[in-house]
Amino acid sequence: MGKITIDNLTGGENLREPNLLKDNQFALLKNFYYDKDKRCKTRLGTETYFATLPDTVVLLDAMNATTGWTGTEDAVSVTTGTAIRGTFALQFGITVATNAANSATLTKTTISASIAAAKGYLGFWLFVPTGFNTNLTAVKFRLGSDSSNYYEWTLGTLLMNTSQFIKLSFANATTTGTPVDATITYARLQVTYTGAYTDQAAIRIDDLQAYSSTYTKPVTSYFFNRNESDSTNITIAVAGANMFLYNETAVAWERINSGLTEYETQTGRTSQRTRWAFFAIKVSGGIEVGMGNGVDDYRVWNGVTITEYAGQPKCRYFLYFQDKICSAGEDLFPFRFYFTNAAPSTAATINTNDVDVGNEFDGKINGLFELASTVLIGKTEKIYYVSFADTLANSTCLPIDAQNGLFSHRVTNGVGNAILYQTKNGIDNLSQKQYSTGGTAIVSENYTADLQKLTGLISANQYNANCGGYIKELNNFYFSFDTGDDNVPETTLVYSSLIGKTWSEYTYPAAYQYGYYIDSANAYNYLLCSGNAGIIYKIEKGFSDDGVPIEYEFKTKEYDFGNSSSWKDLEYIDLFGRKNEGSEFEIEVIVGGEVVYTATITDDYLTSSVAVSTVGSDPIGTETIGGGAQSSEPDSIDVFPYQIRLGAEIFASGHTVQIRGFGDDVPTVFTLDQIQIKYENNTDDLFPVANFA
Known about the structure:
Helix content: under 10%
Radius of gyration: 30 Å
Number of strands: 53
Shape: globular
Largest sheet: 8 strands, antiparallel
Strand content: over 45%
């Protein structure tokens, strides 16, 4: 008679032969992770965050000139003014006179555009002076095919003395006549007021664009920067050929750049989407954001407009390190590393200094990252470190003692005191030896040796397609990678740095990039950019994936109790853990490849009516913002202990036993804390008659 107890189920998933695993490892661990108490627990869900990113945007008028615009009634002095976006804005004033309508109107009848594919919302900027709202009756905007066939909106309360992005949904428009969406020619802004209204000067309107309600383009790139001096955010995303800035007040995406190259242009890569990389620096005029995708010209966003710099390198990777802009990943010079002098006054110039890293036998540069006090440059076969000196000639760039090169700049993340990064074999850990200096002080170690059945599916052509993210509060590192050879990372593994070398699988949406956003409560919200549509998800939120049930599943190793040749009689199996009330979890006992016993863990198996913990109170963020779907699920759930016994007498015999569990209720919180198996070695019948030929 024997009995084994496994109460330290922290081994994670191991994809080697199930009978070769350690007792605390799983042959499959899907949609589970390890919480702060090292419990094997079902993961939380995903929810749409922000508004969706439109796939079509039509510029109706950049408003950099007065061409076609006419002021009537009390509207005067139509001219160009200081830009809100681009080069100029359209500016006018109001001189109150006696007219029956008590109004001032700005009109254009020579727009030439089709909005047939862009009828989600209208967006433009508006600046009104202090006092504008006093004795105001209404501000209305029309857009149509002519003055008899148009859509009309009444604007809400306007911010005074502040540029405001106006979002007008076509679903909320009042329609007059039958506007022809394919031939838009007419736009009108009208201000109405009472007889006590006073003159207004320097009203500005800028950048009139129509945005689609469809969002079929994947979000290939995301950037967030918080200016700690005034707590303002810059949030940029790329979808299709457009770059967008998120407006927190209007809860909308505003297009700030168009005509971007969607796909790579090099031979053999033309089916791969371009990815943008960004960095931010503080300059005398505020924050500047530099950016590049390796195909289009390098460019800079200064808060008003994006400027392209054709004379700068077309880099793919950027790092702002010790007050220097570092960049690399230029297709024309794939070994070259650029860096500026300290504290550059602008992001416009990135090639102040340059050095070639290694040689062609090391392959090209695939990423930059920081470890301790140095910049590390990842090439195909080696990783180099840079030591900055007073002059370029005195700076050094030497290889480190790493087992492999590096791929996919977006995967690389600092986790604990080390770096997790992608190699040809999966994920490696790069850390610094204590009491050592120089290149030999940094060593690497493979962390996915037991997961080669999955990571080995990444084709060489997709090594740079993948992405990763880290949530420090959960000790989770997320690695999304392409196993379908289509440049879309649709498979996700999650590493628990709390335990070390422990992985599970997540059925997340395909992901082009991970990121974060700091909300108005200063809480971090961790995000995933969809590889299939214009959606940015918040991860580890709620108890479903945007309303779709999460399929949880585990399979233990095939236990042979230390004797693979002995035939065992199983008496019972006890499972212990925690679950929420109302959910059910299915259990199967598998012997010799056959299911020999099934059970359902219901509330009948709860051993206490007192909750032992609460899950899902969202410790890493706040509620969904920006037009995302508000979940009908509870924010938190009480969890109770359970115990279930499978069998009460001899119920099966075989060489090995494996336990499978699965469930998809919404909501589900389930942990597997301990397994006890009672069995008897059948020494009288090591090879039952049925096993003989």
